[in-house]
Amino acid sequence: MSRRPDIVLLVLDTQRIDRLSCYGYSRPTSPHLDELAAEATLFRRVFATAQWTIPSHASMFTGLYASEHTTTQSSSMLPASIPTLAQRLREGGYMTAAFCNNPLVGVVNNGLRRGFESFLNYSGLLTSRPNQAGAHPGVISRYRQWFKGRLAETLTRIQDAFARSEAMLEFAFTPLMVPLWQTALSFKGNTPKSLNDAARLLIERRGVAHDQPIFAFINVMGVHTPYHPDRRMLEQFAPDVIRNREAARYVHRFNGDVFGWLAPFSSANEPYRRLLSDVYDAEVATQDAHIGAFLRRLRESGALDRTLLLVCADHGDHLGEKELVGHTVSAYNELTHVPLMIRDPYGDFPRGATIDHTVSLRRVFHTLLSAAGLARGIERDRSLAQSPASDPDGGTVFVEAEPLQNVLGIMLRRQPDLARARRFDQPRRAVISGSYKLIQTGDDHVELYDLDADPRETVNLAAILPERVEELQERLGAFVRRASATAPLIRRAEGVDDPAVQRRLRELGYLE
C-alpha cells in the first residue's frame, strides 16, 4: 500500500465531547462514532485553541494559536503570508476538496478557503462553488449554470456582509429575517448531501489524476442551533417535545431567538435546560446516523482502508451550565474540551488505543502534513503520532476566547449591565498543564480548576492554591509575550528581507 493515503478531516461543528457515548456519555447518542472509535486512536484530552468557529478552524488549518494567526473575528482575514493545510497538501500533490456546511468557513471571505482546488459550500439557498468555475457541465444548460453561479455569488456576498457588519447582524435578529435565513438560506447546510458528495469523490475519484491522493475537508453543522433533529431521535432522546405542547413551543421560541443563541447568558430554568439538553442529544444522534451512512459507503467500497480519517470538533456549546448558552464567550470545558479520533490504515495510530496526554487541536495541521509525508522539522515533532514522551509542548496548551466584536456591540446596547458584570467585554485566556487549568479574564480575574477531580469546573481553587496560580500565570504570560512577538512578524512576512524575520519564520516552519 502506498504511503500516500487519502486524508479526510471531518469536523463536527459545535459537538460537545461529553455527549458522545464513546467518551463515556450514558446515553447511546453516537453508535456509529463509537464503532469508529473502536478501530481508531481516541484522544481524551484535546483542547481547542478558541471557543468558536473561525479562530478554531484557522488554527487547525495553520498549526498556530489564535493570537499568532490573528484570525479571531468575523471581519478577520487570515494573513496571506501564512500557508494553509490545503495549500501545503495541494503543493505536495494532493487533490484538495472541501464539503462545508458552515457559512463562516465556506461563505465569509476570510482566507480559510485558500488552497482548495474544489470547495463546495452547502449553506445558502444553493450549493455554491466559490473555488470552481462551473458545476456539472452537460447536466444543466449553460445558461442555468451561469444563472445559478451568479445567484450563488450574490447570496455569498450578502451572507459575508451579514457576518462582518454589526448593523446587518442586528437586522438578522428581527422577526422578519429569522425565518428567511433559517430556512430559505439553510443556515446549517445539508449534512447528508455534503457527506454523500464527499463519499462519491473518495470512491469514484472522478477528475482525480491516477494515483493522486485526495484531501477532503468536511464540516457538518448538525448539532448547531437551531435544533431540528429527526423525529425518530426526538422520540428516543427528547420525547417531551412530541408529547408536551408547552415543551414544543419553548423549543420553537428558542429556535427563533437568534439573539438568544449569541447572547451568552441563559435565563432558562432547570426543566427548560434539561429540555434543550435532550434536544441537543437528539441532534447528536441524528448527525451520527448520517455519519454512519458515510462510513458504511467508504467501508463497503474499500475507500476507508486507504484513508487516514481524523474526526474532531472545532468547539462545543453551553447548554445552560454556569448560566451560559451558546459559544460566544467562555473558556470553560463545555466549549474548549473537544473530541478527536484518528483511524489510520498504516498503524501509526493503533486501533482501539486511547491517549490521555493533553494536546492542542492546532496539531491537526502537523498530524495531517506528517501523514502525507510533507511535514518538516518541528512539524513532524508535533504530529499526534509522536509519543507523548517527546511532546515539544510538554503537555501544556493554551486557549484564547476573544469577545466577538460585532456581537459585543449589540450586547452592550441590549444588556449593558449584565454584559459588563459577567465580563463579556473582556478576553479570556486559559492554560492547561497537568491536571490544572487556569482561566484569566481581563487583567485581574483568575480561576483555577483541577480537571481530574472537577472536570465540570465547579470549584475555583485560586484562593487555596496561590503558588499554582502564580506558576500557571507565568506560563500564560510567557505565551502571550511570545505570541505577541510572533504575530507582527507573520503579518509582515510577505516580501520582507529582514534576517530576524526570516530566522523566526524558519523556526516556525514556514521557511526551509
General form: globular
Alpha carbon gyration radius: 22 Å
Which fold does the CATH topology refer to?
Alkaline Phosphatase, subunit A
Portion of residues in beta strands equals: 5-15%
Count of discrete domains: 1
Give the beta-strand count. 15
Biggest pleated-sheet summary? 9 strands, mixed
- CATH class division: Alpha Beta
CATH architecture descriptor text: 3-Layer(aba) Sandwich
- Estimate the helix proportion, in percent: 40-55%
Tally of alpha and pi helices: 21
Ends: how far apart?
29 Å
Q: Which homologous superfamily in CATH is the superfamily?
A: Alkaline Phosphatase, subunit A
Low-confidence segments, given as residue ranges, are 133-148, 492-498, 508-512
Please tell me the overall pLDDT.
85
Characterise this structure.
The chain is α/β, with parallel strands linked by helices. It has one domain: Alkaline Phosphatase, subunit A (3-Layer(aba) Sandwich), CATH 3.40.720.10. The protein is built from 21 helices and 15 strands. It has helices spanning 31-38, 53-62, 66-69, 85-91, 103-106, 142-164, 166-172, 177-184, 191-204, 231-237, 240-243, 245-256, 258-262, 270-301, 333-336, 364-371, 378-381, 405-414, 416-421, 466-491, 499-508, and strands at 6-12, 41-47, 95-100, 118-121, 214-220, 307-312, 318-319, 325-326, 337-343, 354-355, 359-360, 396-401, 428-433, 436-441, 445-450. The strands form three sheets. Strands 1, 2, 3, 4, 5, 6, 9, 10 and 11 form a nine-stranded mixed sheet that branches. It has a four-stranded antiparallel sheet with strand order 12-13-14-15, covered by helices on one side. It has a two-stranded antiparallel ribbon with strand order 7-8. β7 (318-319) and β8 form a beta hairpin. α6 (142-164) crosses α7, α7 (166-172) crosses α18 and α10 (231-237) crosses α14. Residues 133-148, 492-498 and 508-512 have low confidence and may be disordered.
